[in-house]
């Protein structure tokens, strides 16, 4: 193991190491210094623009845009025909931004496919771009521009373009950087010996704490990956390191190189207490940090630095390396003569393989201190930081070995590390060329990694990873297949039929597939028929319908919405159609869709009454029209003439509908309204809106007997009801005289029991008794009971020899006071029984 | 809190918990203190899912009722509108939002649509210029609400009216969605059987939604064996007849709303003497009625005539139990007695309450009006004199009894005669219009459209055939110890339940002819279980011998408590072989049902 730490370089209290990721295979003829270079973070692709400078043009060489994987495999290239490019940069979704001198920004995908462009504004256009930076924040990808007029313009999110022109600055800055703090984007720049912070409103002078007063002018600055750290390089080769808020200084260092470095980037890792900066000059790479010493590497050729979350990648024409700080776990295990539990466990496992008893000794030593689970965790963690599968395996083997001696050690962490390392090793492969470290992978998440594989059209690998990690179909496979399909619909050389079929065959009913998304893509490519074919496969109507509307297939949308049963969706289409079509066409369309029509009627009933009428008219639905007028006579007409004329319209419609009854009833209603109106005039009392019954009742109550009679005749009120009505009104009026007169006017069609009942309702027993004698025999017992004459009731019941009646009377008797009656009934009952 | 939901064969608490979880997740999404603005109609149903305590745990500090004008002041971070997706409500919300003081007290606004988000409503909010003010616009799929251990309802008041009169099948869409949720929790129901147009529509939608939901299906051993979808208009008769079970009568007389009933307070005055017993409470007494109460669970489905004996028996048991204390001698015995005390006291309170309710009901059932009305119903249902004008109805109209009572009787007569002769029908209609007002022409029109009132025309009267084949009328009814479902109406066996009964045994094939006489198609669908993920072996074990099948009966358009009682009776039959869970769009009785169909034009309030 002696060689393991050979490439470890101490700096202060920690170690740094640099190792090869790939040997670059890109056969680059040009020198890197002649190219515009943009490497993507998180092991992203490298974009090169060759012969970009105006100087190149004179030599007759056309500029070429080339994109490579991090391992140097060509992905795509195009001859560059647009304007002068100042800066290249990658977005978080791995699109390439080409910022041109005139401030227009062109967006390309990984395969040099042009996506769109946008402009950084008129001012930039006029003054031209001097320098530009592409930066990433939690809002997305942003662009900052410095113009020749020394003004900054920036946008925080290119997908939601809002240009911001920053306040004026004293003059052209010597160096600058974009800073993101407290959800605000700012610019830090140096002008001579002064440092300024520029935000939306102001430009303020800053003094870094603990700055060497002899430092001189600022030549370079660097903000860390997470925007938390700031490094400044000044004229005499002095380096200041501190927090980006400029509130704290960590270290400083004097490199005594007075030349401005070609690149200066932070080399640190999350949660590390160490702060180190990598500086690069022509032949020298220097790492400075918390020490007066520095680590220096000689560079054989032109190189380029890529800051990462946990280190720095360095690539040149022939190699691609990674420089990073050794983590705690790795250091503990591998440091020479380390007695850390992890180190012992690794040793124990090796001895065990050699079948040596030393394995037991080592193991005991760890176990005695109770550090075994720490040892296992350490080995698992350290495995994650190893690049070489062999080393990963030996650490994991040690962890697995140690695990056996612990009760209830949760295997989750171990299993997870094994499977994730397997994925990482697969994507680090030279053919794929994504040199993602474990720390970066955890930050990026598996979902984003899958997206990136999909962007590189590595569908099969992505699906294998999903299967291997057992991601739910929804999260994994479905998304990948959908992406594949979106790519497929852009293949212009195949017929709609062929593509739709191919897509459906592969995707089938895979859960979570959104056919509508694929269709939307097809639509965006101008393939209408294909989009419609694809939509046929979409099971979710809620997705299908809006897209059909967007594609102006409104009639198809309508029938789909109806098929779904989702009435809200139907309403949506109907509202859309209403705005889209002229009225006649709109009505015609509805005509063919009864469900939509009745829903629209419902809508009109509450929102647009007049339209409702038109709809009925168009259908010749006279019954509903009649109802419509009838309703409006009550709800919208106030004046009597209006009401009558509405009702008259209703009569006409009902008669067209051949509804004789409704016709007659409405005519009667008109008649009633008119008569009530007349009564109101005559009697100065309110009668309107009373029912016929109530009108007559009120007339009787007011003693207008002849008027009441008139209504009775006019409306042919049945005798029975009229009698009921009249006697109850008379009783309420306590007009006993009139009641008696009425009872004698002719033979009552309802008998005389109601008279008794009505009198008793007003508690007039005296009057009630007058009618008892006239009650038909079969109701007489009931009438005696009503007036409270139980004795007579009993007599009558006995006379009828009716047992039920006797029981009824009995039930009304109280044993204490009515004993005589009870006895009488009992006697009669036994007599009946005897017979 | 809701333990009674889990006592049944199907643990409906699972559904309730799922709903609660969804609600909690939504509330937590809106971080910080909150005020809820309620669409008033929703408060009742929500009460069955989550009490105020749950809301409070999630920082709901204030609750308001949605009304026009300005929102009440409340120092909260979030204001959430809980509303049904209705345009008129959107207008009110827009008014609320526009009058918010966004500068002085900025509050985050959210909207929760129950049960479904609506593009139409969002468009309306957009037109009013307030759509952008809402941070979250989400939906809360509260379709089927657990009312009891075997009962689910959507509490959608207007469902029957919308389907029958307006051809608006929104509620059926919600029903289908609710059934999908149910299947997600309780497994795919292998067999779907239905009768009626709406049933067909719901089944079709379920089949289609299955495609949408692929991937979300869980591999659960199905809890339900069969889903029976029944249209209300297959059986228009049952809701019209007066329910004669205890629960049915409480509903007929006082109306049960979301398992709560409000009763006149006099009977519930504290009986203690000397403590100012003269003062009678004026607030109505509010009681919750569900199977959590042991006594109620026992008597709710009995014929009212059988309730008295049970109550007096219970009274004896309880007083005997209290007497025990005199026999308790040792400390151990006393301790045991004391430990039972809370349970006994609860039982005593429960008994006192139900004795009072029974007394209140008895006052009504023994009244002449009730008896006369029932006599007429019981003549119509066996088909006696249904083809001529009934003099009792005539007299009732002449005395201007409540219109709904008249309409129930006339409709009952029409249904029991497969429609009335033109002369009879016109006579009734004319009488009603003259007595109650011509504006009821629209109501009568609605009833005709719904098939409740019908002109017989030249078609035959099918009712006798249906009645005889399905044994809808049973002369010998045992109210105390029933042996047939007809006890719930003291003679009439609800048609809907009879269909369910015959489906279980011997199957609908035996009544093919009668089914054809009833409106709408009948059908059967089979749903294959999701094959992609085979069931875990442990779950696949065969049903134990003798274990009953479970059928979910879904009444589209409403169900009465008497019908529920009849289904429960079937579940409990020893050799029944089937247990029933009941779902419906709304719990109804004849009165509320007819009311929902009435159309009385009134001048607009503004």
TrEMBL record, chain A:
Task: Tell me where in or outside the cell this protein is found.
Answer: Late endosome membrane; Lysosome membrane
Superkingdom field:
Eukaryota
Q: What cellular component terms from Gene Ontology apply here?
A: CORVET complex; HOPS complex; late endosome membrane; lysosomal membrane
- In this protein, which residues make up the domain named Vps16 N-terminal? 4-415
Name a single GO biological process: vacuole fusion, non-autophagic
Task: Please name the InterPro entries in this protein's record.
Answer: VPS16, Vps16_C, Vps16_C_sf, Vps16_N
Q: How does the record say this protein sits in the membrane?
A: Peripheral membrane protein
GO MF terms here are:
actin binding
Per UniProt, residues of the Vps16 C-terminal domain are: 513-830
Identify the keywords attached in UniProt to this record, alphabetized.
Endosome, Lysosome, Membrane, Protein transport, Transport
Q: Which family does it belong to?
A: Belongs to the VPS16 family.
Q: Which PANTHER family match?
A: VACUOLAR PROTEIN SORTING VPS16, VACUOLAR PROTEIN SORTING-ASSOCIATED PROTEIN 16 HOMOLOG
Q: What does this protein do?
A: Plays a role in vesicle-mediated protein trafficking to lysosomal compartments including the endocytic membrane transport and autophagic pathways. Believed to act as a core component of the putative HOPS and CORVET endosomal tethering complexes.
Subunit annotation: Core component of at least two putative endosomal tethering complexes, the homotypic fusion and vacuole protein sorting (HOPS) complex and the class C core vacuole/endosome tethering (CORVET) complex. Their common core is composed of the class C Vps proteins VPS11, VPS16, VPS18 and VPS33A, which in HOPS further associates with VPS39 and VPS41 and in CORVET with VPS8 and TGFBRAP1. Interacts with RAB5C. Interacts with STX17, MON1B. Associates with adapter protein complex 3 (AP-3) and clathrin:AP-3 complexes.
State the protein's name: Vacuolar protein sorting-associated protein 16 homolog
Please report the organism this UniProt entry assigns to the protein.
Geotrypetes seraphini
Q: What is the lineage of its organism?
A: Eukaryota, Metazoa, Chordata, Craniata, Vertebrata
Encoding gene per record: VPS16
From TrEMBL, chain B:
Could you tell me which species this protein originates from?
A: Geotrypetes seraphini (Gaboon caecilian)
Topology within the bilayer: Peripheral membrane protein
Leader sequence range is none
Q: Which family does it belong to?
A: Belongs to the STXBP/unc-18/SEC1 family.
Q: What lineage is on file?
A: Eukaryota, Metazoa, Chordata, Craniata, Vertebrata
Keywords from the UniProt entry: Cytoplasmic vesicle, Endosome, Lysosome, Membrane, Protein transport, Transport
Coarse class of the protein's main subcellular location:
cytoplasm
Role: Plays a role in vesicle-mediated protein trafficking to lysosomal compartments including the endocytic membrane transport and autophagic pathways. Believed to act as a core component of the putative HOPS and CORVET endosomal tethering complexes which are proposed to be involved in the Rab5-to-Rab7 endosome conversion probably implicating MON1A/B, and via binding SNAREs and SNARE complexes to mediate tethering and docking events during SNARE-mediated membrane fusion.
List the SUPFAM superfamilies. Answer: Sec1/munc18-like (SM) proteins (SSF56815)
Pfam families (UniProt xref):
Sec1
Q: Which domain of life is it from?
A: Eukaryota
**What does the record list as GO biological process?**
protein transport; vesicle-mediated transport
Write down any Gene Ontology CC term: early endosome
Protein name per the record: Vacuolar protein sorting-associated protein 33A
**Residue spans crossing the bilayer:** none
The subcellular localization recorded is: Cytoplasmic vesicle, Autophagosome; Cytoplasmic vesicle, Clathrin-coated vesicle; Early endosome; Late endosome membrane
Q: Does the keyword Transcription apply?
A: no
């Amino acid at each position: 193991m002696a060689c393991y730490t050979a490439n470890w370089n101490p700096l202060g209290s920690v170690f740094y190491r640099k190792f090869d990721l790939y040997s670059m295979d890109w056969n680059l003829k040009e020198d890197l210094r002649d190219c515009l270079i943009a490497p993507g973070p998180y092991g992203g692709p490298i974009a090169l623009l060759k012969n970009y400078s105006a100087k190149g043009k004179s030599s007759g060489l056309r500029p070429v845009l080339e994109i490579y994987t991090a391992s140097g495999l060509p992905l795509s290239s195009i001859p560059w025909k647009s304007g002068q490019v100042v800066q290249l940069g990658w977005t978080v979704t791995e699109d390439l931004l080409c910022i041109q001198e005139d401030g227009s920004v062109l967006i390309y995908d990984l395969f040099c496919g042009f996506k769109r462009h946008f402009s950084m504004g008129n001012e930039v256009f006029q003054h031209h771009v001097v320098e530009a930076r592409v930066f990433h924040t939690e809002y997305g990808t942003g662009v900052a521009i410095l113009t020749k007029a020394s003004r900054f313009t920036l946008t925080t999110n290119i997908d939601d373009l809002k240009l911001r022109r920053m306040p004026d600055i004293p003059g052209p800055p010597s160096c600058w950087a974009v800073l993101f703090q407290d959800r605000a984007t700012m610019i830090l720049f140096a002008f001579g010996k002064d440092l300024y912070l520029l935000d939306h409103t102001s430009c303020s002078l800053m003094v870094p704490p603990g700055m060497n007063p002899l430092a001189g002018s600022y030549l370079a600055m660097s903000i860390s990956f997470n925007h938390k750290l700031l490094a400044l390089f000044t004229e005499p080769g002095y380096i200041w390191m501190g927090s980006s808020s400029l509130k704290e200084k960590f270290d400083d260092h004097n490199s005594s190189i007075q030349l401005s470095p070609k690149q200066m980037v932070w080399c640190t890792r999350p949660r590390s207490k160490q702060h180190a900066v990598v500086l690069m000059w022509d032949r020298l790479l220097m790492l400075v940090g918390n020490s007066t010493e520095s680590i220096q590497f000689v560079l054989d050729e032109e190189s380029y630095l890529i800051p990462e979350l946990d280190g720095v990648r360095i690539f040149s024409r022939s190699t691609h390396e990674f420089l990073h700080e050794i983590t705690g776990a790795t250091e503990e295990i591998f440091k020479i003569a380390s007695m850390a539990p992890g180190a012992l466990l690794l040793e124990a496992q090796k001895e065990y393989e050699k079948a040596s008893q030393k394995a037991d000794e080592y193991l005991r030593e760890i176990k005695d201190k109770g550090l075994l689970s720490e040892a296992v965790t350490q080995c698992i963690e350290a495995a994650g930081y190893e690049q070489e599968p062999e080393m990963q395996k030996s650490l994991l083997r040690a962890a697995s070995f140690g695990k056996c001696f612990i009760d209830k050690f949760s295997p989750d962490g171990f299993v997870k590390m094994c499977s994730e390392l397997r994925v990482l090793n697969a994507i680090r492969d030279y053919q794929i060329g994504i040199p993602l470290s474990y720390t970066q992978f955890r930050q990026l998440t598996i979902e984003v990694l899958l997206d990136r594989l999909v962007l590189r059209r590595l569908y099969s690998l992505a699906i294998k990873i999903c299967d291997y990690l057992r991601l739910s179909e929804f999260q994994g496979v479905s998304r990948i297949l959908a992406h594949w399909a979106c790519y497929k619909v852009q293949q212009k050389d195949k017929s709609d039929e062929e593509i739709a079929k191919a897509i459906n065959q592969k995707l089938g009913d895979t859960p979570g597939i959104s056919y509508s998304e694929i269709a939307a893509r097809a639509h965006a490519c101008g393939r209408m028929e294909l989009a419609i074919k694809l939509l046929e496969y979409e099971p979710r109507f809620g997705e299908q319908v809006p897209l059909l509307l967007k594609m102006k297939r409104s009639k198809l949308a309508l029938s789909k919405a109806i098929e779904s049963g989702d009435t809200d969706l139907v309403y949506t289409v109907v509202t859309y159609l209403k705005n889209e079509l002229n009225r006649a066409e709109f009505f015609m369309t509805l005509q063919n869709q009864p469900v939509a029509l009745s829903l629209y009627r419902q809508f009109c009933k509450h929102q647009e009454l007049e339209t409702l009428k038109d709809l009925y008219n168009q259908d010749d639905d006279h019954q509903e029209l009649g109802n419509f007028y009838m309703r409006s006579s009550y709800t919208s007409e106030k004046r009597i003439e209006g009401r009558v004329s509405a009702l008259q319209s209703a009569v006409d419609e009902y008669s067209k509908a051949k509804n004789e009854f409704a016709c007659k009833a409405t005519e009667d209603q008109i008649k009633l309204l008119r008569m009530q109106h007349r009564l109101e005039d005559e009697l100065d009392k309110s009668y309107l809106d009373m029912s016929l019954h109530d009108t007559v009742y009120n007339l009787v109550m007011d003693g207008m007997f002849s008027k009441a009679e008139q209504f009775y005749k006019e409306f042919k009120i049945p005798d029975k009801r009229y009698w009921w009505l009249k006697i109850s009104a008379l009783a309420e009026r306590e007009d006993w005289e009139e009641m008696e007169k009425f009872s004698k006017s002719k033979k009552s069609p309802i008998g005389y029991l109601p008279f008794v009942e009505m009198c008793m309702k007003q508690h007039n027993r005296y009057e009630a008794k007058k009618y008892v004698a006239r009650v038909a025999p079969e109701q007489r017992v009931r009438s005696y009971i009503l007036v409270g004459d139980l004795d007579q009731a009993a007599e009558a019941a006995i006379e009828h020899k009716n047992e039920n009646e006797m029981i009824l009377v009995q039930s009304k008797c109280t044993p204490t006071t009515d004993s005589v009656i009870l006895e009488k009934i009992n006697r009669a009952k036994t007599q009946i029984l005897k017979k | 809190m809701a333990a009674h939901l889990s006592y049944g064969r199907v643990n409906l608490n699972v559904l309730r918990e799922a709903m609660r979880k969804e609600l909690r997740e939504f509330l937590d999404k809106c971080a910080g203190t909150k005020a809820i603005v309620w669409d008033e109609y929703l408060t009742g149903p929500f009460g069955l899912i989550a009490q105020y305590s749950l809301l409070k745990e999630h920082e709901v500090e204030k609750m308001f009722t949605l009304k026009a004008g300005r929102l009440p002041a409340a120092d909260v971070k979030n204001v959430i509108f809980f509303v049904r997706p209705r345009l008129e409500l959107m207008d009110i919300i827009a008014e609320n939002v526009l009058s918010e003081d966004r500068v002085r007290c900025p509050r985050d606004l959210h909207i929760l649509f129950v049960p479904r988000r609506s593009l139409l409503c969002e468009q309306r909010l957009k037109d009013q210029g307030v759509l952008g003010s809402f941070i979250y616009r989400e939906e809360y799929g509260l379709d089927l609400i657990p009312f009891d251990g075997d009962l689910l309802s959507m509490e959608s008041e207007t469902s029957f009216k919308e389907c029958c009169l307006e051809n608006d099948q929104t509620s059926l869409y919600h029903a289908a969605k609710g059934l999908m949720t149910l299947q997600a929790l309780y497994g795919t129901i292998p067999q779907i059987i239905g009768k009626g147009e709406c049933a067909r529509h719901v089944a079709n939608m379920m089949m289609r939604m299955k495609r949408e939901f692929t991937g979300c299906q869980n591999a659960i051993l199905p809890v339900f064996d069969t889903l029976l979808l029944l249209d209300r208009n297959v059986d228009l008769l049952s809701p019209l007849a007066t329910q004669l079970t205890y629960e049915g009568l409480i509903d007929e007389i006082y109306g049960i709303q979301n398992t709560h009933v409000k009763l006149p307070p006099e009977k519930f005055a504290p009986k203690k003497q000397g403590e100012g017993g003269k003062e009678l409470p004026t607030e109505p007494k509010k009681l919750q009625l569900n199977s959590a109460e042991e006594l109620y669970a026992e008597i709710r489905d009995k014929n009212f005539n059988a309730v008295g004996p049970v109550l007096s028996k219970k009274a004896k048991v309880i007083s005997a139990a209290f007497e025990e204390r005199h026999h308790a001698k040792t400390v151990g015995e006393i301790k045991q007695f004391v430990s039972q005390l809370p349970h006994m006291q609860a039982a005593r309170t429960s008994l006192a309450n139900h004795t009072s309710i029974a007394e209140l009901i008895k006052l009504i059932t023994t009244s002449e009006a009730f008896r006369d009305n029932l006599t007429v119903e019981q003549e119509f249902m066996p088909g006696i004199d249904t083809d001529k004008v009934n003099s009792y109805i005539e007299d009732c109209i002449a005395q201007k009894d409540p219109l709904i009572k008249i309409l129930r009787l006339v409709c009952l007569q029409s249904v029991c005669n497969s429609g009335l002769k033109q002369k009879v029908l016109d006579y009734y209609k004319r009488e009603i219009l003259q007595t109650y007002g011509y504006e009821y022409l629209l109501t009568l029109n609605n009833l005709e459209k719904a098939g409740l009132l019908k002109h017989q025309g030249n078609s035959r009267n099918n009712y006798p055939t249906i009645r005889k084949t399905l044994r809808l009328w049973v002369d010998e009814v045992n109210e105390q110890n029933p042996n047939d479902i007809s006890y719930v109406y003291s003679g009439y066996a609800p048609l809907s339940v009879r269909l369910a009964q015959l489906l279980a045994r011997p199957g609908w094939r035996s009544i093919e002819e009668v089914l054809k006489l009833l409106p709408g198609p009948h059908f059967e669908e089979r749903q294959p279980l999701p094959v992609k993920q085979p069931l875990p072996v442990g779950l696949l074990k065969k049903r134990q011998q003798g274990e009953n099948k479970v059928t979910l009966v879904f009444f589209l358009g409403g169900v009465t408590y008497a019908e529920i009682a009849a289904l429960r009776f079937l579940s409990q039959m020893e050799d029944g072989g089937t247990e029933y869970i009941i779902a419906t769009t709304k719990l109804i009785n004849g009165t509320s049902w007819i009311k929902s169909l009435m159309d009385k034009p009134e001048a607009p309030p503004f």
